[in-house]
Amino acid sequence: MTHPSDLPAWAALLVAFFLVVGSGLTLTGAIGLLRLKSFYERMHAPTLGTTWGAGSILIASITCFSVLGSRPVLHEILITVFVLVTTPVTLMLLARAALYRDRAETNGNVPGFETVDSLGDEEGQP
Q: Within the chain, where are the H helices?
């Protein structure tokens, strides 16, 4: 089997399901990027959409090519791991850089440097 028309019905339905879910999540992330107002709100939607959307599309690809090739396709698992690891790390670094910049420029509505103890109460508060 080497042609997509040779894909069994169960595998085609599974691949179609993961492709629709992945593209829907990615579309939701793109819409969230357009609709949300502040930079900090905009970071979350595309990150989640990219991570879960790309993960679903990669699962569909793994399933399709594993069934067509009659052997497990494992190199796409490496791509999935890289996407799932690097996207949240990139979000965190981008958020910290923006927060540092906003604090340095003293922009409004930026969280301060106050510390929080283990109970969740701010220090200095009764």
A: 9-35, 39-69, 75-104
Give the number of other CB atoms < 10 A from CB of residue 125.
8
Are 87 and 50 a contacting pair, CB within 8 Å?
A: yes
Q: 4 CB contacts (<8 Å, ≥6 apart)?
A: 64, 68
Ordered DSSP codes for 29-60: HHHHHHH--SHHHHHHHHHHHHHHHHHHHHHH
Say which residue, 29 or 18, is predicted with more confidence: 18
Model confidence over 36-62: pLDDT tens digits? 888 877 887 778 777 888 889 989 998
Give the pLDDT band (50/70/90) at residue 20: very high
Residue 38 burial by Cβ neighbours in a 10 Å radius (0-12, 13-18, 19+): exposed
Residues 6+ apart with CB under 8 A from 8: 67
